[in-house]
Amino acid sequence: MQLTRHKPIVTSLKPSNHPYLNGAWTPLHEEVDALELEVIEGAIPTDIDGVYLRNTENQIHQPLGRFHPFDGDGMLHQIDFANGRANYRNRFVRTRCFHAEQEAQDSLWGGLMDRVGVSKRPGFGAHGGLKDSSSTDVIVHAGKALSTFYQCGEAYVVDPETLETEGVAHWGPLDGVSAHPKVDERTGELMFFNYSTHAPYMHYGVVDADNKLIHYRPVPLPGPRLPHDMAFTENYAILNDFPLFWDPEALKLNAHVVRMHPGIPSRFAIVPRRGNGEIRWFEAAPTFVLHWTNAYEDGDEIVLDGYFQSNPEPGKFKDAPQGYEHMMGHLDEHTFQSRLHRWRFNLKTGATQEETLDPRILEFGTINQRVAGRKYRYVYSTTSKPGWFLFTGFVKHDLETRTSESYELGEGRYGSEAPFAPRIGATDEDDGYLVSFVIDENRGTAECVLIDAKRIDDGPVVRIALPHKICSGTHACWADRQFIRDRKRP
Ligand SMILES: [Fe+2]
Q1: CA-CA 20 to 30 A from 237: which of 82, 202, 267, 434?
Q2: 159: left (phi over 0), alpha (psi -120 to 50) or beta
Q3: Could you tell me if 417 and 397 are in contact, meaning their C-beta atoms sit under 8 angstroms apart?
Q4: Distance 43 CA to ligand 1 centre (A)
Q5: What does the alpha-carbon distance between residue 74 and residue 54 come to, in Å, rounded to a whole number?
Q6: Is residue 116 predicted with pLDDT exceeding 90?
């Protein structure tokens, strides 16, 4: 392995016993390029060609108040596969806020758990008091990686092969772009949404394969809401209005208190992908959903799969350090109880049907992106460590046969969201690999694993050593080199 370390960034973070600034959530501040990574076990397949990108949250400066892991600064990690070889690099996303805090050599913004007044500068996005850290999601569109922030911010354009930040997406509207824009690889289009505390509270937009904003319309809501993800089919985008949102009275005092309103149903907006046709609304059981896996049209019905939360306002986590009880409750899938779920919306009758697909606690699902928006068969979910926002393994569901198989990473080993990398020339939907970074707390190291998606329970076909231990984070994606270069599938 050839390792190049880059000029260190300025950091003012002091050691602490914060549960999400230690262990697998210890922030990484080093930026490197590593060529010809070493294999720990197995062999790097020669039949994939592309990049895995992961966004992580690495706090650089001493927090002004109480730190929440979603306050951390966005860092992209990349592993690039070609011809049976793998290279790695990582870079902080050079956001406006990153540069401002590097210049100040200190934090300028408070976090999610702080009062808005803690920030020394005006904040960004729906919350209004936060730093736009671009640390939540990463996808590839129009040949570029886009990193985004869950409270709505600017979409940062990053070269997916060099990880150089090129600036902000020129098409981003004033209310910003939420995390989880979606790309239809068949058309090359990107669909996005944003939300805010002012009417009409939500918008939906489309950016084409040539990176032009071609559609933007309001999707009016009854008040400020906290949507996190969207889905799409061949003809529709699916947005949501869940009964978990900021308390309206507290919001008038500029305080952000999230409350579940169990008497209010969940509502789903079926929006034509383009044009200003009618938005159809459907009601369903009250819940909150962080992430969808996929959606598709099936005759008169729209089918939507995602993770239904049985306990969206989980309250205090009893074993948390003082002051962090609510934070740890909201970060624990076993406390908010997310399960794979299917909603069916009948466009003819207006009726909704729903069912639980698996009783296990799961979240952070991925699919073969070539079937995004179309009828699909396989979904890959993650399991997590009770009490913690840490991924411990993967479950593959066959939605046709309603069977599943799984793989657990082992004690002290924590994975990352594992997108599907299709094998070159693949025709089967599950002909490819799940790609994940694994933090090994037993050894203080990190590695990349590839798992044959047809044989999840066999475990990794290769384990590749990363040059440093990385910090845990949220989302990741896979992009074929051909898709990066061509901007859509031929
Ligand atoms: Fe997310």
Answers
A1: 434
A2: beta
A3: no
A4: 32
A5: 10
A6: no
Q: How far is the CA of 137 from the centre of ligand 1 (A)?
A: 7
Centre of ligand 1 to C-alpha 35, Å, is 30
Task: Report the distance separating Cα 476 and Cα 77, nearest Å.
Answer: 9
Average pLDDT, the chain: 97
Report CA(4)–ligand 1 centroid distance (Å). Answer: 32
Q: In whole angstroms, give the CA distance from residue 403 to residue 421.
A: 22
Q: What is the mean pLDDT of residues 73-83?
A: 98
Helix segments in 105-186, DSSP class H: none
Distance (Å, whole) CA 383 – CA 415? 9
Q: Which residues contact 196 (CB under 8 A, 6 or more apart)?
A: 126, 152, 175, 202, 224
Give me the pLDDT at residue 23, please.
Answer: 97
Give 28-64 as a DSSP string. Answer: P---EEEESPPEEEE---SS--EEEEEEEEE--S--S
How far, in Å, is the centroid of ligand 1 from the Cα of 73?
16
Residue 483 vs residues 51, 133, 188, 319, 365: alpha-carbon distances, Å: 11, 27, 9, 46, 21
Question: How does pLDDT run across 46-55, given as a tens digit for each residue?
Answer: 999 999 999 9
Å from CA of 317 to ligand 1 middle: 21
pLDDT at 146 over 80: yes
Q: Are 237 and 202 in contact (CB under 8 A)?
A: no
| Per-residue pLDDT at 316 exceeds 90 | no
User: How far is Cα 50 from Cα 79, in angstroms, rounded to an integer?
Assistant: 9
Least confident of 197-206, 249-258, 282-291: 249-258
196-221: average pLDDT: 98
Is the pLDDT score of 159 beyond 80? Answer: yes
Residue 71 CA to ligand 1 center (angstroms) comes to 14
Sketch out the chain's domains with CATH numbers: 2-486 (2.120.10.30)
For residue 255, give every residue at least 6 positions away whose Cβ sits within 8 Å of its Cβ, in sequence order, or none: 115, 247
Find the radius of gyration of the CA atoms of the chain: 21
Query: Cα separation of 8 and 324, whole Å?
Result: 31
For the full predicted model, state whether its pTM sits above 0.90. Answer: yes
Tallying the residues shown for the chain, one arrives at 490
Rounded CA gap, 456 and 56, in Å?
25
Residues above pLDDT 70, as percent of the chain = 100
